[in-house]
Amino acid sequence: MDPEVHALTGAYVSHALEPAEREAFEGHLEQCPTCRQEVAELRETAALLASAASEPPPARLKAAVDARIAVTRQLPPIVERSAAEAEPAAGTAVRGGTRRRWLTGLGWGLATGLAATVAVLGVRVADQQNQLDQAHQRDTTIAALLAAPDTRTGSVTVTTGGKGMVLVSRSHDEAAITLTGLTRLPSGQAYQLWMMGPSGARSGGLLPTGSGGTSGSVLAHDLGDARTIGLTVEPSGGSAQPTTAPIMLLPMPA
Amino acid sequence: MLGRSSSKDAAGRPAPTLESCLHRVALGDRDAFDAVYEQLAGPVFGVARRVLRDPAQAEEVAQEVLVEIWRTAGRYDPARGSVRAWALTMAHGRAVDRVRSVDAGARREARVAEMMTEAPYDDVVETVEAHLDRQRVRHCLETLTELQRQSVTLAYYGGYTYAQVARLLETPLGTVKTRMRDGLARLRDCLGVGG
């Protein structure tokens, strides 16, 4: 390890680095378990410097905080990857780092992607509300899904290229599915989603891929016994049952 | 590690740990949040006030941080450190961010003389636990070399970057960087902070 870089642990936990140095050091931390251990210890030490500065806050602070948390939605916890996908554990510090990267890569991407581009599948869309109402409902639904206590996530590679990700809540009976980096299809073909369970495959509709044709998101209701989300290439009008081999089988965690 | 496991509530029962309280906060438990507030509001406000000096600004930072604790309780990862360190790192970081954004050079420099001559702790009303922490920290700060102590306290309580500390102390950058690290490491050992 570069002793120059390692020497920055003290300045780092004291928030005494310039922003660029801080970022560079955080990059280094991802690669350096020894540094993470030292940062953790020095952070606990710095916390005692803070405790030693403790002062009773004005009483109005509690009222102000209470008023704000009454209208502040809590972030959902970060959900661990399934065992099959998890990288080998190599100490707690490494696990922490992995989890954070995973959140950045999947959780946030999924959440923001959904908020921006999701379409609604299933029976509720038949209500034919006006578009504004639908957009509002989507945002509300996604927020609720992200906040649900039993929300689980999963991701899998699409065999012909790209990646599928799912966020599912059984208590809400809803799943948000995002596909990215798909191969562009020739005209006359479309990606179709399938809700697959013991009783067979139900169409989840054609994937709305927008102008680029290589990514799309859907929100699925009425999951029933579906345990897997399938993706096939179908004629552009869609099919009643899959007519080609699935290019993705994305398990929906129970 | 702060010996708070021996804390008792009014009925003489051991107080729940911050970790168990925060877990319940993540489930939306307002009573648990009150317990977290009870333990952290003082240090959160105190460190913000130490860095910012201005009580009104410190109060704003404390409010932000305490709401953030509520909002992100579910994201707290015990593998990365104690709840106390998590919360106070956030409080210190935000206070420092604010001091850097509002404190333009000249005004800032004027405070230096005050910083350097002042006793490291104000006399204020304090809880027994805060008092004990304060005594231990004060004792351990005394075990540092002068340069270590100045480097650590100017950066942590003063909110200066290490480059600014180097200039204030007329000491090479590399030396200050190293003193911040070995000063904190010596504090760690003196305070018995485990890894």
In short:
The complex is a heterodimer of chains A (254) and B (195). With 254 residues, chain A is an alpha+beta fold.
Approximate strand percentage of chain B: under 5%
The CATH architecture category of the largest domain in chain B equals Orthogonal Bundle
Strand order, main sheet of chain A: write it out: 1-7-4-3-2
Number of strands of chain A: 9
- Biggest sheet layout of chain B: none
The geometry of chain A reads as elongated
Report the helical percentage of chain B: 55-70%
What is the CATH C level class of the largest domain in chain B, in words? Mainly Alpha
Count of helical stretches of chain B: 9
| Average pLDDT figure of chain A | 75
Computed structural class of chain B: mainly alpha
> With helices defined by DSSP (H or I, 4 residues minimum), what is the helix count of chain A?
7
- Regions of chain B with pLDDT < 50 over 5+ consecutive residues? 1-10, 116-125
Percent of sequence in beta strands of chain A: 15-25%
Rounded to the nearest angstrom, the radius of gyration of chain A is 23 Å
Major pleated sheet of chain A: 5 strands, mixed
- Which H/E pattern describes the elements of chain A? HHHHHHEHEEEEEEEE
**How far from one another are the termini of chain A?**
44 Å
Describe this structure in words.
The complex is a heterodimer of chains A (254) and B (195). In chain A, 37% of the residues lie in helices and 22% in strands. Chain A is α+β, with helices and mostly antiparallel strands. Chain A has a five-stranded mixed beta sheet, covered by helices on one side. Chain A has a four-stranded antiparallel beta sheet with strand order 6-5-8-9, with no helix packed on it. Chain B has 195 residues and is mostly helical. In chain B, helix 1 crosses helix 2, helix 6 packs across helix 9 and helix 7 packs across helix 9. The chains are: A alpha+beta (254), B mainly alpha (195). At the A-B interface, helix 2, helix 4, helix 5 and helix 6 of A face helix 2, helix 3, helix 4, helix 6 and helix 7 of B.
